[in-house]
Amino acid sequence: MNGGDLIDRILWEGLRHAEEVEVFFGEGRSVSAEIKHSVIGNAEESRSWCLSIRTIDRGRIGASSTSDPRKWRSCLDAALASGRVANAQEWGGLPKPVDIVSTAPSADPDLIVGADGASTLVGQLLEGAAEHPARVVGGSAELARTDLTIANSSGVRYGMDRTVVSVTLEAIHGQSTGYEFAASPFLTDIDARSVGEQAARLAVHSAGGRDVASGRYDVILSPIAAAQLIGYVLVPALSGRNVKAGRSFLAGRLGEQVLDQDLSIYDDPAARGLGSASWDAEGVPTRRLDFVERGVLRCFAYDLKTAYRYHEESTASAVRSGAEGGVAIGVHNLVVDGRRTAVLGDERAIWVHDVVGAHTANPLSGDFSVELSNPFWMEGGELQEPIRTAMLAGNVFDMLADIGGLGDDTRIVGRVILPSIRFNKQQIIGK
After folding, report:
1. How far is CA 419 from CA 237, 249, 379, 423, in A?
2. pLDDT, position 4
3. What's the pLDDT at 1?
4. Please, what is the Cα angle at 234 between 229 and 236, to 5 degrees?
């Protein structure tokens, strides 16, 4: 049974027992090649499927997922069973079909998912790493393509092709390590040689680091480091569900200046990023969503369930966490934007490649304490002496309310698109 026939069968069977049915189906193919002992390992191909079913009956929502489409009947039965024990909520119905005119850049039409392509990327990683006397301890390259379909009993049936190209490399020099990565829907966005060179360079230049005394210093967070804190603190604070439940620092602050006036944050599903999509996980057409305009809070994110419950409108912010993940409120491509300055060339500051422990940050208050990964003193736009070990402590909302500037080095980090960010006089815990 092909994907289209399977979806039709599930919808027909589901409507015998529930008022509404939704089916999310994906079929993918990927090829990955790993680095083993500084050489190219074998390239492996895999195929995957995901099937998620939701049923709605008298306001009771049931859901179930499987990675084996042959088990669709058991999956449907599980969704119906979970719906029977769910609490009823106010529900206005699944979306009806509309003409979607936008074409989000979610897939590279020229990408060939094959072993040759993955092996070529690994070779480029190793070429870049060879520029420095570091030992490569791991790395990989992956090419993937997935065909996604969402359909419901109201007549919605949308399809989307999604591709991902990703490369990683980890190197070691003495007791120091360096890690770098890149990911995009488009092969032309990936400079694997540069990724390998950067990882090895970080490992080599991090060796022989010195301690830093505790105190307040100007800090520059790379896009990787900044995305960690924004992802674990700011994104949950923009969720309408958290706002209505009183679990958001931003609750009740619409129209207020909550971030630096040079800072704008918006979700752009049409941007060139890993979350690009013309429709969200519930089949609602996506659009740009301006959360913060020049520091002023303008809106929150809602999926259908939360919007109906609190008499709001869905902002097409439903996403799925993983191939078989359930529907949740999230972002597609969260863009951090604003006036750009030469933050890397300003006065002496501590530059941070990555942080460890961002997941322990308090998403309600914004308080955090993280270990710095590959920190350096930076001056005149150049990395200077490495710092052995240190921690950064503070409050994400306070930091974003008074930034020192945004860099011109925008990159994709997961579902966040952002530059380096400079923060003045931050608390560093050293020795």
Report:
1. 21, 24, 18, 13
2. 81
3. 62
4. 115
For 153-174, the pLDDT digits (tens) are 999 999 999 999 999 999 999 9
Radius of gyration of the chain (CA): 23
Low-confidence stretches of the chain (pLDDT < 50) are none
Q: Looking at residue 321, what is its pLDDT?
A: 74
pLDDT for 36? 82
pLDDT the model gives residue 347 = 82
104: number of Cβ within 10 Å: 23
Residue 213: half-sphere exposure toward Cβ, Cα within 13 Å? 1
Multiple choice CATH, 3-203, 3.30.2290.10, 3.30.2130.10, 3.10.350.10, 3.40.50.2000: 3.30.2290.10
Domain boundaries, the chain: 3-203, 209-431
pTM comes to 0.94
**Strand 60-66 to 296-297 pairing:** unpaired
